[in-house]
Predict the 3D structure of the following.
Amino acid sequence: MLRYWTAGESHGKALIALVDGFPAGMEIDLEMINVELQRRQGGYGRGGRQKLETDTVEFLTGTWQGKTLGSPLTLQVINADYKLERLKELDRPRPGHADLTGAIKHLGSIRGVLERASARETAVRVAAGALARQLLRHFQIETIGYVIEIGGLAVETPTGDIASRRRERDASIVYTLVPARDEEFRQLIDRAAEEGDTLGGVVEVRVEGLPIGLGTHAQWERKLDGRIAQAVMAVQAIKGVEIGMGFQAARLPGSKVHDAIHFDSSQKHLPHLGYTRPTNNAGGLEGGMTNGQPLVVRAAKKPISTLRKPLDSIRMDTKESHRASYERSDVCAVSAASVIVEHVVAFEVACALVDKFGGDSLEEMLARYKLFLDMAARI
């Protein structure tokens, strides 16, 4: 079973991810992981901390001569800006953050809660997800994450292969697929900054090249849609997840929702084995399993909780009304969210791939994958 855990606080010395169950024999591309870490720090509307950090990953265990060993992998991202011991306690919790609830839960301080609750922790989740993406690429499975809406301003999602979509996304200051509209987003974010406010938005992740049958219908906790939803909802500030048509499916009759099944013998050699669909309203998942179509996941990110013009709060010691505390923060981090969500989705897909085809070595997985496709094509 492939899985991971993270440790470390926002202002600690380092962030750590422990990845267990990763197959042996895969050469690690450190540059690819570091590029994704840098993308997570980018996007218009980010705050001052991103100028202080230059995130890179280091593997402390689980590798030999640049390849995975099959033993637990320890990934480390150093915090250049660590000063936890010198920071003062917050005495006024920020609405929308974990401050109040966490301090009461642990009968302790707000500071200790906010440093762990910070989205800074997602740096090592991106690193683990980028490692998983490298595994997926050996099976010709590719992912992309991008922004489709910020502050109520939405853009279309043009068609095209993932490579062309990545070029468009990487040309955009906010990671949409339509860089020609960047100036609209710049003005929107600048206006929010001038007003001391913050903005949220919607991101979308697409995974292509998936075979039929990752995940399961047999155990509720192993259904792939459930695992993806949990992983995405566990990203800081995410308040909603959709797969495929999502909530719109509840508003239409079944004839307008479900994807008809066709067969094209000329495509039997592809991972979907020739089973095609004229639509993809299910978002590539049926019954908790991949159906051979592209996986499409959307996530709604709320505006950042820390406001330069704070909302009403209280003083913890006196319970008297007061404006909330202010901590250094972003105006808009939706671009970063698109990177994070892409990588947590990629990790869950890789988990399902390892579950299906075994995880002792990459060579063994590839052989089992080929055998499965050959056998499934005869059904």
Summary: The first helix runs from residue 30 to 40.
